[in-house]
Amino acid sequence: MKQSQITYWCHTILRSQIKPEGIYVDATMGNGKDTLFLCRLAGTEGHVWAFDIQTQALETTKALLSENDCIQRATLILDGHENMDRYLSSETADAICFNFGYLPGGNHSIATRWDTSLKAVQKGLDILKPGGMMSLCIYSGGDTGFEEREFILKFLKELPADKYTVILNEYYNRGNHPPLPVFVFK
User: Which of 30, 111, 124, 146 has the CB geometry, 3.0–4.6 Å to 102, for a possible disulfide?
Assistant: First the structure.
């Protein structure tokens, strides 16, 4: 069922909440599927900034965007998501997407880490416009996934309620540490 995939839910919520033709950030480019989704939302007037530390992710995303005639709508950056503030100013993004973990089909020893991911979320909240939103697909497991999940969730729980709304979802009837879709509204 497509509807049960975490990325499906995140895309559905994003599409329903953010304005089209805005400025969007894919903080974890991966294979480019979120980047493509955001490029389609960006249309001809908006723009997407996508980050990853792996050349393979950048090349795969570039090919996917080219195949779908969207490459001109994106800036692909070979850099860590914790450095997004080097490229975007405060309160400029309408939406920011995160998919934590490792590159699907890639080397599992190269994965997001709690320290850089937490910095990226903090910087992303500053870059996010008032009225904007952040989606976070938090995957557990592996060597760093549980630790990353705990640090990110602790940080999000402590955000001031008068400035942010944090919605944590869960796959309630699944075992084996299913992913957590989280949405932050500024």
Answer: 111
Would you call 64 exposed, middle or buried from its count of C-beta atoms within 10 A (0-12, 13-18, 19+)?
middle
Global pTM value:
0.91
70 burial level (CB within 10 Å; 0-12, 13-18, 19+): buried
Between 83 and 108, name the one with better pLDDT. 83
User: Is pLDDT at 13 greater than 70 in this prediction?
Assistant: yes
Structure tokens at 157: 């729980």
